[in-house]
Amino acid sequence: MEPTPEQSPHHAYPDHWEADVVLRDGGTARIRPITTDDAERLVSFYEQVSDESKYYRFFAPYPRLSDRDVHRFTHHDYVDRVGLAVTIGGEFIGTVRYDRIDDTGRPASAPADEAEVAFLVQDAHQGRGVASALLEHIAAVARERGIRRFAAEVLPANNKMIKVFRDGGYTQRRSFEDGSVHLTLDLEPTEKSLAVQRGREQRAEARSVQRLLAPGSVAVIGTGRTPGGVGRTVLRNLLAAGYTGRAYAVNRAFDEGPATLDGVPAHRSLGEIDEQVDLAVIAVPAHRVPEAVADCGEHGVQGLVVLSAGYAERGAEGRELQRELVRQARSYGMRIIGPNAFGIINTAETVRLNASLAPESPARGRIGLFTQSGAIGIALLSGLHRRGAGLSSFISAGNRADVSGNDFLQYSFEDPDTDVALLYLESLGNPRKFTRLARRTAAVKPVVVVKGARHSGTNPPGHAVPVSRIPDTTVSALMRQAGVIRVDTVTEMVDAGLLLAGQPLPAGPRVAILGNSESLGLLTYDACLAEGLRPRPPIDLTTAASPQDFRDALAEALADGTCDAVIVTAIPWVGENGEAETGDGQVLAEALTKAVAGGSAKPVAVVHVEIGGLAEALAAASSTAAPRPRTVTPAAQTRAATPARARTAGPAEPREATTAPAAPATPEAATGPEATTTPEAATGPGATTTPGATTTPEAATGPEAPTRPGRIPAYPAAERAVRALAEAVKYAQWRRQAAVPGKIPEFLDDTIDEAGAAALIEAQLTTAPDPRGRPLSHDEARGLLGHYGIDVRPTLPAPDPEAAVAAAARLGYPVALKTTAPHLRHRADLGGVRLDVADEEALRRAYGELTDLLGKPAELLPVVQAMAPRGVDTVVRASIDAAAGAILSFGLAGAPSELLGDTAHRLVPATDRDAAELIRSIRAAPVLFGWRGSAPVDTAALEELLLRLSRLVDDHPEVVSVALEPVVVAPQGLTVLGASVRLAPPPARSDVGPRRLPNY
């Protein structure tokens, strides 16, 4: 909304204060500054507020606003006097204002840093979190304008408002004066206020998705009168799934008067429907969508699924249509899935919603699925259905104009029907938020992600998201740091999802392999080694093995304390006539299921080759539905009672690793409030030991406790089963570690001068203002790093031999002579470095050789530096990526990191655990720990350096790039020989500040 000429001319309308927010009940609203154009809206709003609320606001009966009041409340300078309004459908539902005051409580201007604040919320919208959202936004505005404290007078009976202030998480003081409660809030964000804000965000966004997935009534707008077409197809699928709510068909082309279509009421518009519609599925041409959205908004629809195409995928004109669609829907408080969406599914027994183009609703299961691609969604639904797996929920977001993968994570985090979240993403609109949400969700249930457009940088149509400059391998490493299981293909995602949803997490990497094929067992053994697992020698049951032999061998393996998981390999039995018999899948599935039911909580996977019906039988045997009857051949019945001799095949058992497998998660980590499943949740597939959840004793023994084991996943290839198991092992290890978070050592606080560094940074950016930033000189970089306890060995310029000799005399022999020209920097292989120069004669000789070989001193920029103790040359870097945020990187200097890309990465701020893992996760890490008889280096000193650099970048976002190269790590201590630092105005961050929905 633009300001009018009457608005204060020296303070422009702050459009960056405008924001769409999700309220507590999942609806949306818009927060914006109040302008002089809002006089009528303000009066109308005030007339709808109860007398009691007016009394609480003004401490006296105040039935109407005077003209003077209206003028005062709509005219602001946006600095000392600010008013914000919350709007739905263009009308006010709540307001807040502050007035800057001095120490006596009188109106003031800067530098006064206190303001009086007052709220008013329409009674019909109280309890929706309107005042809490307004407090977050007005506090951010006040901080931007130099206000540090809010003062408020509240009547003691106004408990709702007192609670808003109390629950905000800000530091506050309270006193009782003259019959009212006087509150003072310090506006500096605290850990508590941030936690409160994020908790509200999580609950609101989860609720907004839940409203879409569990509507009490659905209207399909654009339902054709003849069979076929998108709208009619969705209505048919909705009814075929057994939707438990009320369904309506809407099409303005219907005849007037009462009518039905496919057995449901048919109407020309939503206004003809007697009840409120919760969800509208829009399947009309794009040019008619605005009319449909307006009809929905005017009649209280809570959410939209827009299947219509013709938006951002069609170019610039479509992109603007898409943005206008989002603006229009949000103005009415509605969220959107789409446009160009495939639809949504919720298999909960109380909902049974299939508002999608999928002809067959998937079975009920424990997997939640989100995809940005309709085509990928179709493939995933088909693949899961083919393998007998069920879903809890499904969202195909299409162009993802509003509801995103972040919203799905918020929902999945607290959805009791979802044990595993699968996401196909083509972009991360808010990567920092995604990482935060994924880390929290992964702490209680697995999150499996396939990232499309890894190399092309393609974004969803109509999106303007930050483009990452970091390699995809770095993105993968950062995801894994957050506990995300990153896989490359949708097939791998399904493979991992089936195992994680149906089986318990492994306690370690030790794998038992058993089966009736020696060759298939050896292939599985090799695959385990390739994935970093520790397989036991395969147990060959021989081709004569019966299902009973499989059951006995599996039960024995599950009882064996030296293994953490079991892979069963199976090939068809060969009949007496020499032909393979494939009808034994049912019998073998029952045998394996019975073995698992009586064994310990270890994951089991099956690798089979052409055993007909085995995968389906395993799915049926462990589902909540009765398995289909299958015909068993007499030969199969005979083999079921005939034991076979087992023998060990393949290589000898590998030597145990020197470190014991990680301990199981602590009881505290496994029994948090989010980790407990209800008895109802425990009845689904895979409920025996659900990843990310524990079952209460009541749930385990009550009438609804599961009577079947978790679903045993079956794979057609050993590599696929092993890869899924390896992902589960790595995830389980991350879960155990995440149960006890890393820390930032307290000793850092005693040796860090944060204020001194801030002053230096401010001086540098003020002296040479440049939006692109500026690099620091060697001495400036040394000074900044020194404030954080990072000592960089000094260098002295050597423009000629005499200067080099003088520098060496000052530093003391032995010295190093090296070039600092950009094309030769850190390139010892090109001859630009001379080490261990012992005296003046050697120095002059080295100087001459250097200039003769590489060029004139003015081109080489030679320097002299005192020698450091011998050690391993490493490189430590920190940088700000536009998409991923602050990243800390480590590798060995030279070819390992530059040529082979052997570099590890962690997000900032890094903990002590992050630093330890960082140096151990590169492939060349053994060089640091005494490889081939060399002396181990001081990794503790290296970890401390990483923590100090992480703290510097985290404390000062203006430090956009730091490179410490080389860092020579000796057996005792380390030496930083070179440092480069770049400063720039801090980049905008989308993960801080008050809650707001993104605007794509």
Shape: flat
Across the major sheet, the strand order is 1-2-3-4-5-6-8-7
Backbone CA Rg: 33 Å
- End-to-end distance, in Å? 18 Å
Tell me the total number of β-strands.
Answer: 44
Overall average residue pLDDT:
85
Share of residues in strands: 15-25%
Structural class: alpha/beta
* Helicity, as a percent range: 25-40%
* Uncertain segments: 1-9, 623-708
Q: How many helical elements?
A: 31
Largest sheet: 8 strands, mixed
Protein architecture, described:
This protein has 1000 residues and is an alpha/beta fold. The chain has 31 helices and 44 strands. The N terminus is likely disordered.
Features:
single chain; 31 helices; 34% helix; flat
Brief summary of the model shown:
With about 1000 residues, this protein is α/β, with parallel strands linked by helices. The chain is built from 31 helices and 44 strands.
Give a topology summary:
Elements lengths: L18 E4 L5 E6 L5 H9 L3 H8 L8 H8 L6 E8 L2 E11 L12 E8 L8 H15 L4 E6 L4 H9 L4 E6 L2 E7 L4 H23 L3 E5 L8 H11 L5 E5 L9 E2 L2 E4 L11 E4 L6 H10 L4 E4 L9 H16 L3 E3 L5 E4 L6 E4 L7 E8 L2 H13 L4 E6 L8 H10 L5 E6 L5 H12 L4 E5 L20 H10 L3 E3 L2 H13 L7 E6 L2 H13 L3 E2 L3 E2 L6 H13 L5 E6 L2 E2 L5 E2 L3 H14 L5 E5 L5 H8 L12 H7 L6 E2 L18 H4 L5 E2 L16 E2 L1 H5 L12 E2 L2 H21 L8 H4 L3 H14 L6 E2 L2 H9 L8 E3 L3 H11 L3 E5 L13 E5 L2 H15 L2 H4 L1 E5 L5 E10 L3 E8 L2 H4 L4 E5 L4 H9 L18 H17 L3 E11 L4 E3 L2 E5 L17
Parallel strand pairs: 5-6, 9-10, 9-13, 10-12, 13-14, 14-15, 18-19, 18-20, 20-21, 21-22, 23-24, 23-25, 23-26, 26-29, 29-33, 31-32
Antiparallel strand pairs: 1-2, 2-3, 3-4, 4-5, 6-8, 7-8, 11-12, 16-17, 16-19, 25-30, 27-28, 34-44, 35-38, 36-37, 36-38, 39-40, 39-42, 40-41, 42-43, 42-44
